[in-house]
Design brief:
By secondary structure, this protein is of the alpha/beta class. It has helices at 6-9, 20-36, 50-58, 84-87, 113-125, 149-165, 172-185, 198-210, 221-233, 247-250, 271-280, 299-309, and strands at residues 42-45, 63-66, 79-83, 103-107, 131-136, 139-143, 188-192, 213-218, 240-244, 259-264, 289-293, 314-319, 326-331. The chain has a 7-stranded mixed beta sheet, with helices on one face. It has 2 domains: 6-143, 3-Layer(aba) Sandwich (Rossmann fold); 149-336, 3-Layer(aba) Sandwich (Rossmann fold). The chain contains 12 helices and 13 strands. 38% of the residues lie in helices and 20% in strands.
């Protein structure tokens, strides 16, 4: 059974009025359905999910609902959405460790700061996650505890080097979001702008979990060497490859291969050029997720790209995983996106 098209999902749903929470849920559900298949469900824990339930179903994931965690007998899930109403009994959430393969999204964050904090502390205490990511005004995302201390040590060193010497790295929150998506989607993962390898390492860590492959492109040879060294130290050379040169020319090396996830963090004035090069090479296709960094901090420079991905053929939103801003784009129809 094929997943419903986005256009079919419009019927009966006020998409033009959907909140950022609902759009995030739709995009993650759509991507997870492609990665995990149509039979792995989204699990709703708690109440007050009527619109989100319809959004997730329109993206093609079956749904299971429980008012209390103790009711759940689910052993595998693609996506878990937890209501703030359940967080009042945060001690129950320790049982979510059995759903450790799922992307966990907590709804109601801003309205219920204390209970949400308690809920994720319970998840940490149970060993189900190590951190949370504010991916939108109403959502937090749990990060699984499987990257290891050596990984954290090495990427922190790369992060500090980038802070001192440039280029400015993405935040740990943004990096962890990349890790979750790469670990969920698998397939071909493309990064435009390797820098010193901080974000590349997070993508590679996720890709190793999902069986994916990362191709990262960097124009400056010194950074290429440092990134390759970091990946080698972490044992990621079989998972991630750093390619030297101008992306607009070197993209031909992956031409014809559809990417599941693309992260753009290169020269800000070239973002639209990168998008068009990806489209021309056949790397962008329906269902591809594109994440572009610095779309708030450098909006004047990046505005041609932002205007393009907010036009026909794409579904986009801009959120603040860090101060620089991140625009998340789902490709709907490549024939309408040019």
């Amino acid at each position: 059974m094929r997943a419903p098209s986005f256009e079919a999902g419009l019927e009966g749903l006020p998409y033009k009025e959907l909140s950022e929470d609902a759009l995030l849920a739709f995009m993650f559900a759509r991507a997870l359905r492609e990665a995990r298949g149509p039979e792995v469900p989204a699990v709703f824990l708690g109440e007050s999910f009527s619109l989100l339930r319809r959004v997730v179903r329109s993206a093609g994931l079956p749904t299971l609902e429980y008012h209390a965690l103790t009711e759940s007998r689910v052993r595998s899930a693609a996506l878990v959405l937890v209501s703030h109403t359940l967080c009042i009994n945060a001690d129950q959430l320790g049982g979510m460790k059995r759903l450790h393969d799922a992307l966990v999204m907590l709804h109601g964050y801003l309205r219920h700061l204390n209970t949400c904090h308690n809920a994720f502390q319970a998840l940490r205490d149970a060993g189900a996650c190590v951190a949370v990511i504010p991916v939108g005004p109403g959502f937090l995302v749990a990060v699984l505890d499987d990257v290891g201390s050596k990984f954290i040590s090495n990427v922190t060193s790369a992060y500090l080097t980038s802070l001192r010497e440039g280029p400015m790295p993405v935040s740990f929150n943004t990096a962890k979001l990349l890790y979750i998506l790469a670990g969920s989607l698998g397939g071909l993962i493309v990064e435009v702008g390797t820098g010193r390898g901080f974000s590349t390492a997070w993508l590679a860590a996720g890709a190793r979990r999902s069986g994916g492959k990362v191709f990262s492109f960097e124009a400056k040879e010194e950074r290429v060497r440092e990134a390759r060294s970091l990946l080698e130290e972490l044992g990621f050379l079989g998972v991630a490859e750093v390619i030297s040169g101008d992306f607009r020319e070197s993209v031909h090396s992956i031409a014809g291969q559809k990417a599941s996830l693309i992260f753009i963090d290169g020269a800000k004035e070239e973002y639209l050029d990168y998008l068009r090069a990806l489209e021309s090479a056949g790397v962008v296709g329906e269902g591809t997720l594109i994440l572009a960094h610095n779309t708030v901090s450098h909006i004047k420079t990046i505005s041609p790209y932002v205007e393009a991905v907010y036009s026909g053929g794409y579904l986009s939103l801009t959120t603040m995983t860090d101060r620089a801003g991140l625009t998340i784009t789902l490709v709907l129809n490549t024939t309408k996106s040019r």
